[in-house]
Amino acid sequence: MRIKSILTMTGVVAAFIWISAMPAQAQPKPAAAAQTAPVCAKCHEAQWKSTDLTAHGAKNDADGGMCQSCHGDASAHIKDPNKVKPADPFGKAGTAETRTAVCLTCHSGNRDLAFWAAGKHQLNDVTCSNCHSIHGKALAPSINKFVTTFRPGQWEGCGNCHQQIRAAIFKPSHHPIIEGKVKCSDCHNPHGALSPAMVKQPTINDQCYTCHADKRGPYVFNHPPVEENCVTCHNPHGSVHAKLLNENAPNLCQDCHDWSRHPGTVYAGQGGWLCAPGDTNPACVGKTSQPNPAVNNRLVTRACLNCHNAIHGSNAPGNRGKYLTR
Ligand code: HEC
Ligand code: HEC
Ligand code: HEC
Ligand code: HEC
Ligand code: HEC
Ligand code: HEC
Ligand code: HEC
Ligand code: HEC
Ligand code: HEC
Ligand code: HEC
Question: What's this model's pTM, rounded to 2 decimal places?
């Protein structure tokens, strides 16, 4: 142990003396790992280290060619770094447009970016580097495939700007986003899409079917709003109501289904809790503001789903299917 460290020490000291004894020009080539260190590394060590192991760093050369393809021509800058700065679009003078243009010089062929120009982000001056951190944290190189500005959760990065969505995903009923099982980008293409809300599939329902295939049907008896749009009843991000519902039954159902019509003839009660003027119900004729004796099952009825439990559609034969009760 001791001998080893003494040997190492001696080696280091020897190497130091050897290198410092040589004239500047004649220094030996550094070890293999450092061979590609660009000229910029000398003064911008943090930026070099942070890109070194990434897909971008892999393309770098001794002149810092990759650095310059993002930061602009730096030949004059190297000679007099304090007086001349590179024409850096990521500096103060840059705009969202000029910054995006730099990234697109190489990435415009990317399939996922095909609709960038039509996306809400482009249209609202959000640029690539708002989400992608090229340099990451100083001296903490990342070889992670998707280096987003805010680690670790993608949703945290998105939530920085989308505060309302951030609040939604913490509600009692939510897609398991904060649990790390579902990502924003499972449903959205942050790079833009022609679909509503930039979902990755052409329609919202197609998006839901990618994971909830059982809701696609086809059903013998379908429930029209389900085929039309899942978010009529569900909030995709989060809700205080169970099962991501926008409202609880019966209110949810009664947005569309007239409460006074149900339960219809079988259960007799046509009116409300109280007899109303003009009520044709024999038990109510001539009475107003008195309990309606025909009311018998309203409390049960409020829990619509107890009976209509095949709410997304049914394949059961006959009336059970028709009325979504099985
Ligand atoms: C000899 C040292 C040195 C070298 C080599 C060097 N730089 Fe710099 N660079 C500086 C200094 C000093 C600054 C100014 C820092 C400041 O203002 O905080 C700077 C600033 C910058 C900036 C920020 C400009 C701005 O708008 O504020 C960028 C980008 C940059 N350098 C890129 C490069 C690139 C790319 C290379 C390699 C091709 C390189 N530098 C090589 C010393 C150097
Ligand atoms: C893929 C594009 C890209 C590459 C490659 C790249 N940078 Fe950067 N760099 C950026 C962006 C974007 C910023 C702005 C801050 C951020 O998002 O981290 C930045 C920030 C900087 C800064 C801080 C000054 C500023 O403008 O905010 C310096 C200095 C710098 N980079 C130097 C370098 C050097 C040196 C290299 C090569 C080793 C390099 N960069 C490679 C995109 C790049
Ligand atoms: C000079 C060309 C060039 C420029 C400019 C450039 N990139 Fe890249 N980028 C590449 C290459 C090459 C790769 C690796 C292959 C690939 O994934 O396409 C890459 C990969 C990526 C990746 C995937 C990382 C990974 O590990 O798979 C992201 C994200 C990315 N670039 C974002 C950006 C952003 C943001 C900008 C602008 C700030 C930018 N790039 C500018 C060439 C470039
Ligand atoms: C709103 C945030 C956001 C913006 C703005 C953004 N990206 Fe991305 N990008 C992401 C996320 C999130 C991923 C990971 C996608 C995934 O996991 O499916 C990604 C992935 C990538 C990838 C690698 C995977 C792929 O899709 O091929 C590249 C390359 C890339 N982005 C480049 C860019 C460029 C270039 C721009 C600017 C024109 C840009 N991004 C703008 C969030 C963003
Ligand atoms: C399960 C799929 C899914 C996931 C996961 C998802 N979204 Fe959405 N998002 C949607 C759908 C569907 C809409 C359209 C809602 C509508 O039309 O009412 C939407 C709408 C949006 C909108 C625009 C409308 C609005 O409500 O402001 C934003 C912004 C948004 N989502 C951001 C996010 C962010 C950020 C995340 C991650 C935290 C995320 N989404 C995760 C499906 C999803
Ligand atoms: C730098 C801020 C910023 C970040 C980070 C950001 N967004 Fe956005 N996003 C916006 C702005 C601005 C709009 C347009 C205004 C709006 O609809 O809120 C927008 C709109 C959207 C929309 C609505 C699209 C539509 O057609 O209505 C979706 C979906 C969305 N963003 C998803 C995401 C996702 C997913 C992420 C993370 C990968 C993300 N955003 C990160 C700023 C941001
Ligand atoms: C990327 C896959 C994915 C997509 C796309 C997706 N979901 Fe989910 N969904 C899940 C997962 C995972 C769960 C949680 C399942 C569990 O906990 O057993 C879930 C649960 C649900 C739940 C039940 C929530 C609860 O509290 O039990 C509803 C409702 C739901 N999703 C509706 C939708 C709707 C509507 C869409 C389309 C906007 C959609 N989902 C798209 C993966 C997805
Ligand atoms: C008419 C309103 C309505 C529409 C539209 C709707 N749902 Fe639902 N969904 C409900 C109700 C109500 C529940 C709760 C059922 C329960 O608690 O028994 C539910 C529960 C769910 C669940 C969790 C329980 C289960 O059955 O797996 C998922 C997942 C789900 N819905 C997905 C979807 C998808 C995907 C769509 C679009 C294809 C959709 N929903 C459209 C009303 C609706
Ligand atoms: C967005 C509007 C909407 C919502 C919300 C809605 N429905 Fe429907 N529902 C319809 C439409 C439209 C039909 C088809 C009516 C027809 O065929 O005459 C239908 C049909 C039905 C049927 C079959 C009736 C028949 O005559 O075939 C039942 C049962 C039903 N809905 C129950 C419910 C329940 C329970 C809820 C709440 C969980 C609900 N609905 C929420 C629009 C809605
Ligand atoms: C006790 C079981 C039960 C409950 C609870 C219930 N229903 Fe029904 N519903 C039925 C049956 C059975 C039918 C079949 C038609 C009939 O026999 O009247 C039906 C028929 C329907 C129909 C189609 C006939 C019509 O009147 O248009 C709709 C729509 C409907 N129910 C909606 C609802 C809504 C909304 C709720 C909650 C407020 C609800 N149901 C609660 C059993 C129930």
Answer: 0.89
